Every structure is written in C-alpha cells, then in structure tokens.
Amino acid sequence: MPPRRHLTARRVRLGTELRKLREATGMKAREAAALLGADSVQMSQIESGVAGVSSARVRRLAAHYACTDEGLIEALAAMATDRTRGWWEEYRGVLPPVNLDLAEAEHHATFLREVVISYVPGLFQTPDYARAVFGYMRPELPDSELTPRVEHRMRRRTVIEGDTPTPYEAIVHEFALRIRVADRQVSRAQLAQILDLTEREHVTVRVIPIDQDGFGGAGASMMYMGGPVPQLDTGLREAATGTAFIDAEPQLSTLRTLFRKVEKATLGPAASRDFIHRLSKEL
After folding, report:
1. pLDDT at 5
2. What is the pTM of this model?
C-alpha cells in the first residue's frame, strides 16, 4: 500500500504493535521485510504507520513472529482494514491532529475511564463551559478558531450519548465541580448536565471530596481507553509538551494502578450524585 497522507494515532499504534511482535522474536526489520517481498524501507514505513498494510500481511507476519494470540491477531487485522472516516475528519486542517486522534480513539474504545482534578471532563462539558475554558486558556484565538474547538468537544459526546454508547466512568474532584470557569448560571447548567448524564446506565460518576484525607493525587488526571483486547488498551495524559498517548504495558499498568488508588478516595456513585445535587443547590 502507498504511504498515507495523514498519520493518526491509530495507524501509528498498528505499526507499533507489529514492531513489538517482531522485536520479541529478535528478527531484524530487513528479515521481516523479506518475508513480504519488501525492503527494509517499506517495513520501516509500515511499522511507523506511514504505509498501510493488508490484513493478509498482518496475519502472515504474525505467523512468522510465532504469535499465537488469535484475539490480538484479529484485532490487528481489523485495524489494518479499518477505513473509518468519522465525523472528526471534518476538522482536519482546522484543529490540531491530537484532537482528531482523541475522538478516533474514543470512538473505537470498548470502555472509557477518566480522572479529572481541575476541570469538568470534556465529555460532560456544556458549550458555555467549554467556550469559557478554551477562551481562557487560549485568549489569543479568534472566534473563528474558538468555535470549532467547542463544536468538536460537543461532538465527542456521541460516544456516551449515541445509539451504542460506550461505558464511561469518570472520577471528578470537588474542586473541578466548584470552580466557576464563567458565571453562576453556567456552573448551574453544567452540574445539571452531569446529573442528567448520571441517569444513564453506562455512565458512572464518582466524586473526590475536597476534605478527603490521604489524597495525594492532584496530578492524577488521565484517561484510559479499553481496546478490543487488553494489549491494545490506550492511555492518555497531559504533559508539559502536550497530550501524550500511552501504549507501553508498564505505563498502562501504572495508569491502571493510579485509577484504583484514586477510586479509593471517592464517594460511591449514589453518594456522588447526591453530592452534586446538593452542590447545585448551593449555587
């Protein structure tokens, strides 16, 4: 297949997983390329996501790599043949690629878990809340650039509001619920929206009270996205250099452990809903 015009996190992930399988065998890239009748440059392009690869070639490589995990092989083959052009593609060239990669990753996730400390989760945000956040963080943006960011954030909610919603568990700190990114009216509407979403069976919200003892997770913000098989789970964290997608198992294990630790500091779902309801009455 010819080199792809646009690299996405999903395409890069497919190449990364093929490279991991190859390296586990000790096979050189040129040796794997020879198995496909290709050269080392083509293999490098496949493993970097620049060039596509057919499902047949994925299975052929897996066989030579002695991979016997049928679930993983089929998941990789499905990624190779996936030609989904989701709604996020409308924003290519308008928003940074990471925004599109996040929407695509959420679309393909089998479950979503998120921890937020400073802001209401993006999947919960109202248009007014999102506009206030984007406008504050990027005050130099004209409305022509601010509006697409808000629209994109609203459309991401299809993963939890669509016909086949994805199970979503959000852990939110009380601080994020209390801080007024705009005014009292926007805060009330935001809390009301969260309460509405908690009525859905696939949405779980847990609150960390501000007076919780022993909580040292102020930097715990993260998202964890389930893959079709555990090896294809994906993590996401905000760093000083930008948003980072995580696929290495040691780091994914760290995120899973972090989520469990933070979860211990939360109120249960019912108590969290009552907490948000009381808070909304205080505003």
Report:
1. 57
2. 0.91
